[in-house]
Amino acid sequence: MKKIILAIIPLMLMFAFTGCNNAATTTLNIYNWGDYIDPDVIRDFEEEYSIRINYEEFATNEEMLAKIQAGGTAYDVIFPSEYMVESMIQRGLLEELNFENLSNYENIGNEFKGLSYDPDNKYSVPYLWGTLGIVYNTKKVDDVVDSWDILWDEKYSGQIIMLDSPRDTIGITLIKLGYSLNTTNPNELEEAKQELMRQKPLVRSYEVDTYKGQMIAGEAAMALAWSGDAMLLMDENEDLEYSIPNEGTNLWFDTMAVPTTSQNKEEAELFINFMMRPEIAARNTEYIMYSTPNVGALEYLPDEIVENEFLYPKGNIKALGEVFKDLGEFTTEYDRVWTEIKAY
């Protein structure tokens, strides 16, 4: 949901994942977010197990769901976010995992198990997690950034970038108004719509990935951003900082799961188990810069990553904010509201 897509990555993936292991007898179809795995990890798996990887990328959970429902490609491993796991379980689209094949599950921290979207830990294992906040340029912003209200400050008109993602942008607006980001109250949703329409004249653009170049170049004052993206941007521009507003945030989890389309379930679980090796999880974490739920991986990560409180906050992480829930049929109301906001 929240990844930097570099122009060179698709070419790297094309050549790296289709040109090796010609002798492999099994092909795993992996469907993941863009730029959401270290390419070397894929190559290492292929070489170790003589299993070829056919790797495809999606931009949103909804795109992934539509592709699974449409059939055509028999995907073996997918990377849905928490609310999509919940939705796919209800739709009967996920296989129950055989944890006898997932010995490395013991490396996952207890606070990341038994969560509401998969309470019995039957269908998914956590991959990465993070928060939603504001990345801002300290040379352009002279106010304290501790509230979502600053995204509505006319002082920064034309300098504010919002995510082109309805659940996220509407969600932080609901939090700003004192409501749940999972509300199914039509009046609260309408109020959030009006608030975003009031903000729209101040917004430079609604984007998911392409805004990052603008923030690195110092062309905008602030942007709604996922934590890992913010960390990568801060590495590129020392004037950038990240803040989680006091009103609370979206605490999100991306997972690994096996869809019912899989024709290679045992090999799919082999891949998931490989991804939960501490050293492999650490490599992916350092490459992507999101937080890992893999406790063993922390020993392989540099101190500056593990000690970064935006990536690994102290205390109970659940106190940071809410986790998205599947809204069922009410999701269409969010889509309608977002369409009206964009057309306003």
UniProtKB/TrEMBL annotation:
<dbReference type="InterPro" id="IPR001188">
    <property type="entry name" value="Sperm_putr-bd"/>
</dbReference>
<dbReference type="Pfam" id="PF13416">
    <property type="entry name" value="SBP_bac_8"/>
</dbReference>
<feature type="signal peptide">
    <location>
        <begin position="1"/>
        <end position="23"/>
    </location>
</feature>
<dbReference type="InterPro" id="IPR006059">
    <property type="entry name" value="SBP"/>
</dbReference>
<protein>
    <submittedName>
        <fullName>Spermidine/putrescine transport system substrate-binding protein</fullName>
    </submittedName>
</protein>
<keyword id="KW-0574">Periplasm</keyword>
<keyword id="KW-0732">Signal</keyword>
<keyword id="KW-0813">Transport</keyword>
